[in-house]
Automatic annotation (TrEMBL):
It comes from the Bacteria. Residues 39-58 are annotated as: Disordered. It comes from Sphingomonas spermidinifaciens. One of its GO terms (cellular component) is cell outer membrane. This is TonB-dependent receptor. Residues 448-963 form the TonB-dependent receptor-like beta-barrel domain. Belongs to the TonB-dependent receptor family. Residues 1-35 form the signal peptide.
Amino acid sequence: MSASNRTVPGLLWRRTGAASLAALATCLLAAPALAQETPPAAAPLPEPQATPPSDQADDIATSAQDIVVTGSRIQASGFNAPTPTTVIGEEQIAANAQPNVFTTIAQLPSLQGSSGTQTNTFSTSSGAQGLSSFSLRGVGAIRTLTLLDGQRVVGANVTGVPDISLFPQLLIRRVDVVNGGASASYGSDAVGGVVNFITDTRFKGIKGNVQGSITDYADDETVLVQLAGGTSFLDETVHLVVSTEYGNEAGVGPGPYGIGLAGGRDWFVQRTLVNRNITNDGNPQLVLRDFAQSIGFTKFGLITAGPLQGTAFDEAGNPFAFEYGSNGVPARNAAGTVIGCDFGFCQGGDVSGNVDSGRSLKSSIERLNAYTRLGWDFAPNNELYVSVNLGQVRTQNQPINGQNRPNLTIQCENPFVPQLVRNQCAAAGITSFRFGTSNASLGSTQVRTDRRQYRFVAGAKGRTPVFGTDWNYDIYFEHGTNYSDIEVSNIHLSRRFDRAIDAITLNGQIVCRDPVARANGCQPLNIIGGNPSEAALRYVQPENGPFQRTRQTQDVVSLNFSGQPFDLWAGPVSVAFGGEARHEFYRVYGDPYGGGFGNAPDNANYPVDPTLLAGGANWYAGNYYPGTGAYSVREAYVEVDLPIINSDGLGRANINGAARVTDYSTSGTVWTWKIGGTWDLPLDGFRIRGVASRDIRAPNLSELFAAPVTTTLPNFFDPFNNRNVLALQYSVGNTELTPEIARYNTLGAALANPSWLPGLNISFDWYNIKIDDVIGSLGAGDIVNYCFTNILPQTCDAFNLNNPNGPNFINVQSFNFASIETEGFDIEASYQWRNPLGLPGQFVLRGLATHVAKYVSDSGLPGTIPNDSAGQNFGATPDWKWLVTQSYSNDQFSLLLQQRWFTSGVINNNYVECNPGSCPVSTGNNQTISPEDNFVPGAFYFDVGGTYNLTEEVTAYFKVDNLFDEDPALSPFFSNPALYDALGRTYRAGVRFKF
């Protein structure tokens, strides 16, 4: 399908942009209504406190209703939720001046491994390019629940995670980050915690923001335009808010071949972790090498084995002697050994063909969204409302330079082989040679995504007296649809490529050797050098490349009630209860060449070719397969807050407990619960708190219902009958998966606003999360062998190798067998100083830190050992991660200083560090490496920003991120965008206005 043949939903969005907001609001006046909270009026939020549990809501409430801070479902004045919650207000979001609010929230230390525009840029087939989603505690975006106004959001990816770029960002009032399990309150996926975006539903006036930015390297040019408006009418009973925004971030990359990066960045040196494959000579098995050079390919081709090894070709196809690094000398044997080089790599020499520099450092992203909410106060403190959120996000990235093929066989008689080389073949008595190329002449792969969200909510929320006490209710229906399109260009069909490069001369014409391929349009391809014909390029890389089309829907009906039915000796008992019904559906298909004929409705653009596999998997990368499935969820919960102490001598304490029963149509019934409490001691401002909970993550639609992908295994070993058999491997979803089960424990203490130093807040919270039955996958051989040895009996139902009525098969699917355990603590502190040193205004100091003491992943498979990735700086969980800000503001201007840093670490904790000459025997689970090579430095980033009020309504601002232009750490895996900033110094400036 070409880019112009968009689906109807894509056309709908283009017709429903900012210009139609007024018409959309008019339509909503006649729409059915149902619910939402009435948040505070437009009073400014205070600085977030170091210990902002739910009682912080009392500080910001300016309406009759109580405000729910996300750690609990309880709505009650003075209630203290025991789960640690960090609150980021709109003032802090504005001060950070990012083009996407996702970046601001992802900087919090407890968020580790979040996905954004600088991650997922190195892959072709993941489907997550440009997707902005949060990961709390490093346990992954699929285990972090993201809400909008306390409500679920339809997934923007087959894993079910939403895209924050599609949220209405200018109306965000605050963001609550619950650092810990909350499944008993909010349901599945809240294993790492909850991120809840709260919007301003009673905004009055007009406000806007215009921002531009650029890096110090003159790239990633960014434009952001936001506009919102709100009004009330009919005696202040009807409230309308609308917003729209457009953002365009140009992204960064790619660089040229070799070691150059985009914009002249000079930190990349092709650092590579080389496996010497020598385990017992007393020296480390693993060594780091800078300016590493693969001996398997070059930019325009290299003969890699045999008598002609070391012959390379320039762009014109002329042969020359390749310069190996490390003074390497080709052995010219069948193995392709290079004497003087490490296994597979030399150091230095001609590195012009290296491909890693072609990775995008940041995906480009263009986003557009519109939001409208209409509410009607049909009685005091009671509201009916509807809201509509339409959003579109487009991204583009380049995974790598070229399309590397290191192990090709070229016949000496190939007419594209230079005559000099053919003569050398004859002299050496060979008829073919091994050949490697990065295929620079084919161009580099481009991946484009287009995500479109249509979300509608209707509800009722308010407060009403029942049997003499006030009860809060929150009832809503949500329907969301997300369309995700992925298109890949400049990528070859492997089987066509293999036939096109095998050229012969027939009747004086250069043609493809394979007669079937010739009859179906094969055009001979010259890959010796960089000058293929246009016809050959179009044959191996047709204009209609790989694509994926996904449609996901989510329907939710939710009812929530809370109140204080009676009093006890220490105060009123608070109760919340409710239920939810949810239906999730997805359908995905790919192009016929990638996903197989019969799976997509537009096969006409992909004619049948007998040289290709009818079942798909024909592309070099980007083979997207079909799938469809749905599941339903019904659940009910109850939460109780029981005050147990309320006296001057003992202080004030409460116990908070919740339980939820959830029934999945796929996996049955599961219970979650939590029990915790807080105790305000009779010490000025001192509080202790703790929670224990049982949480879940249900298998997502892709894990459950991925469609079969068939691979032929011609000589698969059957251990039951001691024979080799022809078997078919089916990669499929597993509808027998059960939810992952987590146990979360936290214990903390806080000092809040003591009388001896008003404005001071400090908190310390220890946490531990243990997740069992983690969903993971196995290979075909493992599935059969683990059944044969009775190590994992659950795999025995996944294959049949003695089937008289059909083919032998192995279903390669996910199982519940792995585990994750992480432990650490959070520190948060802030101090507010009004009129510092006699100056008008306010000084605020705030710091947050997370220490990950351990993060142990255990595959649960025999022959493997657990891996503790805490402090592995090529993951997402460094030992320490900090965020500190200092700000001063008055009526005229403000100044912000921000520091972000994390500690040094290692490549892998399972490596055995030893000095050359004294290393033990290296093993597969514990490979040896020198301490210097296993060291990975941390990073320190310093940001500065400020504002100046041009008038009472108009404010100019600036921000410089990474002021000292800190380069990312040198990496054997290119770079780690989950931790390091690869862009460098970035300048931002803009104007905000509010009338």
